[in-house]
DNA sequence: AACTCGGGGCA
DNA sequence: TGCCCAGAGTT
């Protein structure tokens, strides 16, 4: 019963994706897995647009792990100060560069476990790199995705890891990327954590949350 | 599982 | 100016 509802919601979303313009999807600009890794570390609690404005200059001058490793902590901090949490991120990025060189032959690892050993890389960031740098099936779940998918009844899960696997099961692989971006945008603009704007929502007919409030 | 971190954004 | 955000890391 719940599963049937999830399938209905899924089909509604996929229908919406066809009409959605690609401008809705913000992307982190990068030329290599390494650059995507650094950009994704920077993107925590920060919009992709601001990250891109930082990495545009940073990667122009220091495009590789070897080049970025040579950059002093102070200069790195100066580059990324507009990203928020810059002290932590600068330290993590420096440490990550050293680990890539020392432990991974200067390459970005291709497994989630290895990626998550890098400081500043959690499960969500690891999944972003796996999916977008290496095209390895992975579904990044942030709080927006987790909240919206559960409210809509697309999944029924306690943890974001459960949400991750349930979304991978119910959404066709070719829609993972745009569905991910749609869920994030819907979470930011409509299905907000505290004040969900259900009157602006197109999916209220099958929504568990809306029908309870 | 719940808490802390530490910046920016926004009312 | 105080509250909120959203990831990672810690206990």
- Tell me the overall shape: elongated
CATH architecture of the largest domain: Orthogonal Bundle
Mean pLDDT: 89
Low-confidence stretches: none
Task: Assign a percent range to the helix content.
Answer: 55-70%
Number of DSSP strand runs: 0
Structural class: mainly alpha
Number of helices: 12
Ends apart, CA distance between termini: 21 Å
Major pleated sheet: none
CATH H-level superfamily of the largest domain: Hypothetical protein, domain 2
Q: In angstroms, what is the radius of gyration?
A: 19 Å
What is the CATH topology classification name of the largest domain?
Answer: Endonuclease III, domain 1
Domain count: 2
Portion of residues in beta strands equals under 5%
The first-level CATH class of the largest domain is given as Mainly Alpha
- H and E string: HHHHHHHHHHHH
Explain how this protein is built:
Helix 2 crosses helix 3 (48-61), helix 2 (33-42) runs antiparallel to helix 8 (123-133) and helix 9 (143-152) crosses helix 11. This protein is elongated. The longest helix is centred in the N-terminal third of the chain and has 18 residues, at 2-19. The chain has 2 domains: 2-25 and 139-212, Helix-hairpin-Helix base-excision DNA repair enzymes (C-terminal) (Endonuclease Iii, domain 2), CATH 1.10.1670.10; 33-133, Hypothetical protein, domain 2 (Endonuclease III, domain 1), CATH 1.10.340. The chain is mainly α and 213 residues long. The chain contains 12 helices and no strands. The protein has helices at residues 2-19, 33-42, 48-61, 65-70, 73-80, 86-103, 112-117, 123-133, 143-152, 160-170, 176-189, 208-212. The relative contact order is 0.13. The mean pLDDT is 89. The protein binds a DNA duplex (11 and 11 nucleotides) through residues 41, 43-46, 50, 81-89, 92, 119-125, 142-144, 159, 193-194.
């Amino acid at each position: 019963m719940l599963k049937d509802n999830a399938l209905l919601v899924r089909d509604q979303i996929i229908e919406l994706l066809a009409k959605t313009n690609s401008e809705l999807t913000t992307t982190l600009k990068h030329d290599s897995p390494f650059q995507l890794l650094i950009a994704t570390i920077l993107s925590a609690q920060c919009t992709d647009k601001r990250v891109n404005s930082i990495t545009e200059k940073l990667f122009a001058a220091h495009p590789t792990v070897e080049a970025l490793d040579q950059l002093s902590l102070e200069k790195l901090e100066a580059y990324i100060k507009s990203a928020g949490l810059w002290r932590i991120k600068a330290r993590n990025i420096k440490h990550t560069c050293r680990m890539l060189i020392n432990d991974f032959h200067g390459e970005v690892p291709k497994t989630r476990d290895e990626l998550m050993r890098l400081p500043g890389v959690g499960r969500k960031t690891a999944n972003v790199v796996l999916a977008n740098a290496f095209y390895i099936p992975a579904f990044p779940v942030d709080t927006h995705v987790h909240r919206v998918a559960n409210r809509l009844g697309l999944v029924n899960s306690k943890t974001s890891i459960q949400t991750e696997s349930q979304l991978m099961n119910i959404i066709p692989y070719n829609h993972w990327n745009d569905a991910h971006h749609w869920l994030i945008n819907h979470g930011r603009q409509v299905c907000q954590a505290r004040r969900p704007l259900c009157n602006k929502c197109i999916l209220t007919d099958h929504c568990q949350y809306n029908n309870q409030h």
